[in-house]
Input
Amino acid sequence: MGFSMLTSSTQPRVLPCGRPKVCEANQPSPELLEVWKNQLRGYLISQGLKYTHQRWKIAELILMTGGHLDAQALVEQVKKMHHGIGASTVYRSIKVLCDASILKESLTDANGRVVYELFEHGHHDHIVCLDCDEIFEFHDEKIELQQSAVIQELDFREVRHRHVVYAHCSYRVT
Amino acid sequence: MGFSMLTSSTQPRVLPCGRPKVCEANQPSPELLEVWKNQLRGYLISQGLKYTHQRWKIAELILMTGGHLDAQALVEQVKKMHHGIGASTVYRSIKVLCDASILKESLTDANGRVVYELFEHGHHDHIVCLDCDEIFEFHDEKIELQQSAVIQELDFREVRHRHVVYAHCSYRVT
DNA sequence: ATGAATGCAAAGGTTTTGCACCCCC
DNA sequence: GGGGGTGCAAAACCTTTGCATTCAT
Output
């Protein structure tokens, strides 16, 4: 398999603050990984680009970790897991993976860095836990609708939005 | 006065897209500037820090332009208006002014840069105009309330949030 | 075979830091 | 007079780019 240290546990993972990772996407099954791999391959072929070992390894790492990494963290992870892949390849791959609809920019974290996440259809917003730095997702239709109304009222036409709540975890033990 | 080119017009300024700057704070009166100056001086004294020409000039520039500048833009503005103030002083002053509750981080713009704005009591969210890059403010109580409800439901305690809508301007002429 | 992708290193751009000198209190 | 502040330059950081080499097709 090659990723056993990441795929092992079947019981829900628990965060430092005691909260289960309820809002976090589960790790993809081997079958799902194949689906993504084929999506990547298909995209690359369609664009006259090449499917390479490095591009897949980087994509796989993102998929296995559930996304929510900034560029720098991704470079470090890649260096750790796959000695030999250079930083520039990671940066270049981020662009390709975004174009391939596997990755997308999501929010900017507390340090002002752009965090990437898996491209999943369906919009969601984010909660950044100030206790454990974990990123959670939420979606609320009432908020979305009201936002649309407000934006229209002000004569704007929304293209996208980012709604990020920085919060403490009520589960916190410390 | 020294800032006449910035304070002149009494009629509402109009943006490139034709929209008046309705959401933008007005430029402060000389009296209000004195209030801010005293706030800065008071803060500095209370912290055992020193009131300097440079710190005030940087604060004044931010106040006169209504805020909404990233660090780089502020450095350029300062260089233009006050030849002799170095970039490092600007960066150091940004921190001091944030601590003094004159400035605060607000949003990250389309380029991923942190934009600072005047510290004003009363929360608001932002609309970034993709046509003219101007930043507008909005506030909607329904959204705020619903957000609070959602966050509480998920067992978080909100500290702050950033809600930024990137949009086109319906006024757009081009 | 051929053109794209890679790794390295160098360059770019932004922000921070070290230090001698300056100035506010 | 003394300690914080400033300007300059150098360093630190992150990201992009140029180029020779490697690799996928």
About this structure: Helices of chain A lie at 4-7, 30-46, 53-65, 71-81, 87-99, 141-153. Chain A touches chain B through 35 residues (CB under 8 Å).
